[in-house]
Amino acid sequence: MSKNITALTMGILFAIGLGISGMTQPQKVIGFLDLFGQWDPSLAFVMIGAIGVHASMYRWIRKRSSPVLADQFHVPNRSDLTPPLLVGAALFGVGWGVAGFCPGPGLTSLASGNLASLVFVGGMVGGMLVFKISEPLRNKVFPKS
Question: CB 18: neighbour CB atoms within 10 A?
């Protein structure tokens, strides 16, 4: 139960941070990507702040024998680039650039009732369903090692 409460609390904190920083506004993302027009560097400052917090806390937290609410750390140990990873990354990047949303801000923006966020989250859920339904085919084409 405490894991769920912690996850909910962190999700709410993340949503508040997105809202305060203005990162739920697609025009912020699109403005950041518009290098030769009206470039908006605010997303870069948010990313630099997040990277700074992560970099400073990662080493400190990894000194622990285990996380506070789990038996062990779950750190990815694969570094190979697979076709599904590259396709997924490309789809994410194109979707982010076109819509101005990624999953966190998209979900947070649902509270505004904005039609664009509703369409984005609907498309995201639809994409997740297609991914899940196509799993048997993907496993045939890209067998797991």
Answer: 19
What span, in angstroms and rounded, lies between the C-alpha atoms of 129 and 131?
A: 5
pTM above 0.70, yes or no: no
Give the CB-side neighbour count of residue 46, counting CA atoms within 13 A. 16
Only one residue has tokens 């650039």, namely 97
Are 2 and 69 spatial neighbours (Cβ–Cβ below 8 Å)? yes
For 68, which DSSP code?
T
Question: For position 145, what pLDDT does the model report?
Answer: 62
Residue 136 in this model has a pLDDT that exceeds 80: yes
User: Are the C-beta atoms of residues 32 and 40 closer than 8 Å to each other?
Assistant: yes
Instruction: Spell out the alpha helix ranges (H) of 1-145.
Output: 2-21, 26-33, 42-62, 83-99, 103-109, 115-133, 135-141
N residues, the chain? 145
User: Which amino acid belongs to residue 45?
Assistant: F
- Of 10, 15, 5, the closest CA to residue 110 belongs to 15
CA distance 25 to 29: 7
Tokens 């990815």 correspond to: 76
